[in-house]
Amino acid sequence: MRPVTRALTPLAAGLLLLSAAACSTEEAGSAPGSVTITFSSYNYGTQGAAGTGTQALLDRFAELHPEITVEPQAVPVADVLTSARAATAAGEPPDVVQLGYSKLTEGLETLPVQPLDELAGADWEPHVAGILPGPVQTGTRDGHTYALPYTISIPTVLYNADLFERAGLDPDAPPQTMAEIRQAAEAVTATGAEGVYFGVADTAKSDYLTQSVMNSAGGGVLAGDGTVTADSPASVEGLRQVAALTADGLQPAVSVEDALAAFSTGDLGMLVISTAVLGTVQQAAQGSFELRTTGFPAFGDAPPAPTHSGASLVVLSGTEAEQQASWELVRFLTGEEGYRMIATEIGYLPLRSSVVAELGPWLEENPLLVPTIEQLDRMQPYRSFAGSRANQATQLLQDEAVAPIVLRGADPQSTLTATSDRIRELVGTP
Amino acid sequence: MTAGVAGTVAAPAAVRRRRWRPGAWPYLLPLLVLVGVWVYLPVLGTLVLSVVDWDLTSPTAELVGLDNLRRLLAEPEFGQAALQTLVYAVALLPAATVVPLLLAVLLWLRPGRASTVYRSLLFVPAMVAPVAVAVAWQFLLNPLNGLANEVTGWFGLPRVNWLGDPAWALPVVVVVTSARVVAFNLLLFCAALSGLDRRPVEAARLEGATDVEVVRFVVLPQLRATVVLLGLLSLVLAGQWTFTNVSVLTQGGPDGATDNVYHRIHTLGFVYFETGMASTASVLVLVFFTAAALVAGLVRGRRGER
């Protein structure tokens, strides 16, 4: 055995030296490209404005921080949390994750999220000072902020002004209530086109539009204390009004992707959806039809109360050098320049008041975002189910209740009651 | 002779040990190790995971006994997915046996360049990436402006929501999957036909038998083993064959109408991170197929088949 031990000694020493060299390289962090971080994003690599806008953001960051190399990872929007959890289980979590709000609660419970306020140190207070406070609060737990808002939008009504004119409607007076939406859909359908489509049965399994519908009808998926209220009379009434459009032939019973494709080709009058698709639809509409937007409709006498969709940024890095590099990326993406690029190049909301003011002239030339910005003061907080099974509960709501009710004529009251009971048992709340 | 035998019996134990021959073990051992590590060890791990509550990333797991089984049997989705796995198995059986057999026999009856070209063309669906095929079908089946509804519209038929209507979605997944299964099994039947004993075929033709008679009385009896094998494989693998199309085209919907146990296990394990429930479902699948294999073995044993 002794000769073997002697032979192994130089090898072990060599390995130690290599390890030390690797550590010193990682800690240096000042030479160009010396720190590499991964960025898991559902916008990156996609067709249209969301993909090109994200690439533009990363290119600009690379100019500003040549010492940090960002390796973007394209992930389907429905799989962001799944992918991050699987990578974490494999010991290779991405450094920065674009995590949708419908998956944030479960993400904060199950991912190795780092407190951003601690990573930022003295930079923290001046950085968050100008950001819309509601979404920042959503990412805060036990006195620490783990998630900052990145790409946020409010549902809006996109409409085809040419189809409106053909149907004898005034494109300058778009519908503001569900009753008016219904009338407009009847007129558009009479021309042979499809009337309206509410993207509530979201294939990304987010319930932001379900919440917006229920909130606006005076109910909600959840009450402020976390109680499940998706089967309350007001919540049921909200979904019933959307389902009635399908039952009366005013809304096609198709998936969101199919409806988006139909709207992009000029075959659908109105599409109620997140402004996240605005840039992509704008490109498709160019030279084909005039695209306009209006605010989320009221479901009764009360004003509309939409909630936001979109995503936050969380950091999962393990080493100090990677954590600092990740914070630099988050700081850029949620800074003034980042938010300005996100608003103008993709179509998400500008989340700093300073950016809104700065974008004044741009908004005059590009008025499609204006109706959603005007509804910012009515925006409700996004509410998430409690615990580590929050995402499963959201998917249960969408798959077992919302889609069958809105697309396939299931009875709203009994379906929502049965699903809410299953969710209560699953997440352990009343 | 007698003395020699007696001498051998009386040899000391040490000598006997020296003379022990390893036999087939050196050849079997690598395979046994691989099977143990990649098949039986994961099965053991799955059995352990089936009695704990763990979400794949937590540092701790809680022992819950049979609670995962109780929760799994209580959810309607698993029962529906299990039943539909059987529906897939039965629905894909013709695509795995009758259709490729018929095509292979037709190609065999008319050998030549045309036959080779047709065989290559028919095999194409098995070569194309499954996800790419599924995405292409997604465009074709778009209910508002897809080609499928355009074509049915020419015949005055109403528009169909192929993947969004629970009544249509499962048959569509079966048809889309069938193209691949037919293509692959066609190749296997062609291989079986090329290995046929030609003597009885030529003898039958000399006796004036028609093509139909040759196929019916000479070819098909020789292909019986291949048909049975591919039929059994289809019954066992149908759920896995449909997985990609279910995952890309419908994600198990609408209303769970296209789900199968494998997709449900994936959803439980890697979407909901219910590792315990997913493992329990896997154990149930294993128990089902083991029991089915035992019953099939017993039936064949009673019939005296080998």
Kindly, what is the distance between the CA atoms of the first and last residues of chain A, rounded to a whole number of angstroms? 67 Å
CATH architecture of chain B: Orthogonal Bundle
Distance from N terminus to C terminus of chain B (CA atoms, Å) equals 41 Å
- Assigned CATH superfamily of the largest domain in chain A: Periplasmic binding protein-like II
Biggest sheet strand order of chain A reads 2-1-3-11-6
The domain count of chain A comes to 2
GO cellular component, one term (chain B): plasma membrane
Subcellular location (chain B): Cell membrane
Protein name (chain B): Sugar ABC transporter permease
Membrane topology (chain B): Multi-pass membrane protein
List keywords for this structure.
heterodimer, A: 430 residues, D-Maltodextrin-Binding Protein, domain 2, 2 domains, four-stranded mixed sheet, 20 helices, 11 strands, 50% helix, globular, disordered N terminus, B: 306 residues, mainly alpha, two-stranded antiparallel ribbon, 75% helix, flat
How is this structure best summarized?
The complex is a heterodimer of chains A (430) and B (306). Chain A has helices spanning 2-28, 49-64, 80-89, 104-110, 116-120, 124-128, 133-138, 161-166, 178-190, 208-216, 233-247, 256-264, 278-285, 320-333, 336-346, 353-358, 360-365, 370-374, 390-408, 412-427; strands spanning 35-41, 68-74, 96-100, 140-141, 144-145, 147-153, 155-160, 194-198, 268-274, 291-294, 309-315. By secondary structure, chain A is of the alpha/beta class.
Describe the protein.
The complex is a heterodimer of chains A (430) and B (306). Chain A is α/β, with parallel strands linked by helices. Chain A has 2 domains: 185 residues, D-Maltodextrin-Binding Protein, domain 2; 201 residues, Periplasmic binding protein-like II (D-Maltodextrin-Binding Protein, domain 2), CATH 3.40.190.10. In chain A, the strands form 3 sheets. In chain A, strands 2-1-3-11-6 form a 5-stranded mixed β-sheet. In chain A, helix 10 crosses helix 11, helix 11 packs across helix 19 and helix 19 packs antiparallel against helix 20. The radius of gyration of chain A is 24 Å and the shape is globular. The termini of chain A are far apart. Chain B is an all-alpha fold and 306 residues long. Chain B has a single domain, classed as MetI-like (MetI-like fold, Orthogonal Bundle), CATH 1.10.3720.10. Chain B has 16 helices and 2 strands. A two-stranded antiparallel sheet of chain B has the order 1-2. In chain B, a hairpin with an 8-residue loop joins strand 1 and strand 2. At the A-B interface, helix 3, helix 12 and helix 19 of A face loops of B.
